[in-house]
Amino acid sequence: MRSYRRHRLLVPVLLCALAVLAARPTAALKEPGSGTGGETGLSAEVARLYEEAAVATQQYEAGRAEAEEQRARAQRAEELLDGQRRHIAALHEDLGRIARAQYRSSGGLPVAAQMILADGPDDLMRGQHAFSQTNLAVNNAISKSRRAEARLAADEAKAAAHWQALEKRNAQLAGLKADIEQKLETARSRLQGQADASVAAGACRGAVRLDQPETALTSAWVAPVETYELSASYGSGGARWSSRHTGQDFAVPIGTPVRAVGEGRVEKVSCGGPFGIEIVLRHAGGYYTQYAHLASVAVDQGQHVRPGQWIGQSGSTGNSTGPHLHFEARVTPEMGSSVNPVSWLGARGVSL
Length: 352
Prior knowledge:
The protein is of the alpha+beta class.
């Protein structure tokens, strides 16, 4: 009787255990578009390499400038050294000319004969004194010039050694810079591949959080990217658009951090369509800004953003012929209500 009761209790327990085991893999799966795992790591890697490449470029350029300065110093020292050597040669020539003149004026006679033929002791002393003073002055000038020559030679050697050391360091920096840029290019290609897959599926991967840069912005408005080249402008025409271009394009590499131009709230995050991956922000005063053709987003709909905050990374999704950021200023969140974004930003103190 007790055995039967024990079996009756055991069956529900086993069924519960099986239910937990069956549910465990499902619970461990990540929601599509949650922005976790490898996707987060790739976006963060691109952002990190982007910053490292910028720092490496700055260091390399600073090193090149310092090396050029040292090269110029070495060249100036060499020129001064050549001038000093010419001056010493001229002094030697002067000393020889004085000696030859003295020999001619004395007729090549020995000192004893000069004493006999001199008009008087004073005449003899004056001649000997003048020659001795001239000889002493020239010798002092030559000694002074030789000391200057030695100092210049030491300065030249020091500048040349510093320049050569900088050249060696710059070669190392160039190699480091090239290595970072190669890794960045590989990571950018993978990031764009993920973005294209998301657009093809019509579903965003979700916000991928990025470590924000340490900046001390003093203005309420900024450009949407920090470094860029302006490409297609507002109102321009062409075969790429069915009508006039509705925004300002910023030519930037894939993975470039895209910034919120001002304080606002995320109105929309979407994938698919001609703009690919895009973000629309709502700002005070009834204006909206759009950031399109992205490779990733770093914000969620409804999230508050501050000026300069990284909200995504540039790409080439949607109707795009190459990596760039398409930026619009609008009076509604929808396309067709854009205003000139360059003038709009200019009125807020941002000159592009």
